[in-house]
Amino acid sequence: MAKQQTNPQPVDAAVTPRFGSIPTFMRLPHLKDPSQLDIALIGVPWDGGTTNRAGARHGPREIRNMSSFMRKVHHVSRIAPYELARVADLGDAPVNPIDLMDSLARIERFFAKVHAGGCIPLSAGGDHLITLPIFRAIAAKRPIGMIHVDAHSDTNDRYFGDNKYTHGTPFRRAVEEGLLDPRRVVQIGIRGSIYSADDMEFAESSGMRVIYMEEFARLGVEKVIKEARRVAGRGPTYISFDVDGLDPVYAPGTGTPEIGGLTTLEAQHLLRGLQGLDLIGGDVVEVSPPFDPSGNTALVGATVMFEILCLLADAVARRRKPPKKR
């Protein structure tokens, strides 16, 4: 089926108030066919990989609600994502709240269809284990790079005996499965107490560039952007943003908060500095609304999602441009 010629547009808040109409990501139309889109906004309402405070399964619904605050044009870059790319809410990936392995399979099948439709996914979780089945769908043919904002490396091996699949293990599994090239991975904001002295051994020995929060503070945002771009290089790159990478004063509604993190402004500046990379998808994870009745963490999630959407739309537009003649 040929792609539509008219790009979907958000509901205009100057015509229909933000508290009106059915909530969708960015107030966009809800469509079901990824082949009609360049970028699909997708919810993954699942937290079966959570090891302590659950609740991220409710993240997509609240992020949709708070995304009504987003408008059409980025105020700094002037990127107008809905003019550059066909974007819509593709709904939620199917999940099984009582069966972890079945959920991983369902999520992978859903995103495989999205990928087969030629569509870039931008997802709202859910806990961080959702990124693994997404990678299985979009990186099956070649390993990809990743820019990862998080308080935790998520490269542990096992929990509770022989459990290899939790929100603390997805990127170790992704490297082992050949989905993620560790030499093209940068992890930003890592901090907090650890289980043992060798917890970070896999990430560091595999070749990941780990920027602990102390180094982030010492370098500053601009130098971290430069380093992230160096590590990602020119290959296909995914952005994975865990809201616990932020200090919990900005995002208290998350399962594993760690003090001393990024500010929301630092995070925005960091993301804006990634424009021009070969971006092929992204996610915002670990928004847990039950731990923040104010809704502020969901607003942070929606805003970060819009920042990433602008980057992805710019990447779509850049790929359409014919190469310059020498």
Walk me through the structure.
This protein has 326 residues and is of the alpha/beta class. It has one domain: Arginase, Chain A. The longest helix is centred in the C-terminal third of the chain and has 25 residues.
Gist?
It is built from ten helices and eight strands.
From the structure above, extract its key features.
326 residues; alpha/beta; Arginase, Chain A; eight-stranded parallel sheet; 10 helices; 8 strands; 16% strand
The CATH topology assignment is Arginase, Chain A
What's the CATH class label? Alpha Beta
The CATH architecture can be named as 3-Layer(aba) Sandwich
SSE order in H/E notation? Answer: EHHEHEHEHEHEHHEHEH
Number of helices: 10
Content-based structural category: alpha/beta
Oligomer: single chain
Order of strands, widest sheet:
2-1-3-8-7-4-5-6
Rough shape? globular
Query: Residue-averaged pLDDT, rounded?
Result: 95
Family: Belongs to the arginase family. Agmatinase subfamily.
GO biological process, one term: putrescine biosynthetic process from arginine, via agmatine
Keywords: Hydrolase, Manganese, Metal-binding
GO molecular function: agmatinase activity; metal ion binding
Helices and strands in order, then pairings?
Blueprint: E1 39-44, H1 59-66, H2 81-84, E2 87-92, H3 100-116, E3 120-125, H4 131-138, E4 144-149, H5 170-176, E5 180-190, H6 201-206, E6 209-212, H7 213-219, H8 221-232, E7 237-242, H9 264-272, E8 279-285, H10 296-320
Parallel strand pairs: 1-2, 1-3, 3-8, 4-5, 4-7, 5-6, 7-8
